[in-house]
Amino acid sequence: MTIMFLIFFYLMPMKLQPTDFAFVFIQFVLFFAFIFEISFLQITLPKFVKIAGFVTSIFGSLLVVIALLQLNKNLSPFPSPKSDTQLIKNGIYTYIRHPIYTGILGIVVGYSFFSGSGYRFLITLLLLVLFIYKSRYEEKRLLLVFKDYLDYKKKTGRFLPKINP
Question: What is the value of pTM for the model shown?
Answer without folding.
Answer: 0.88
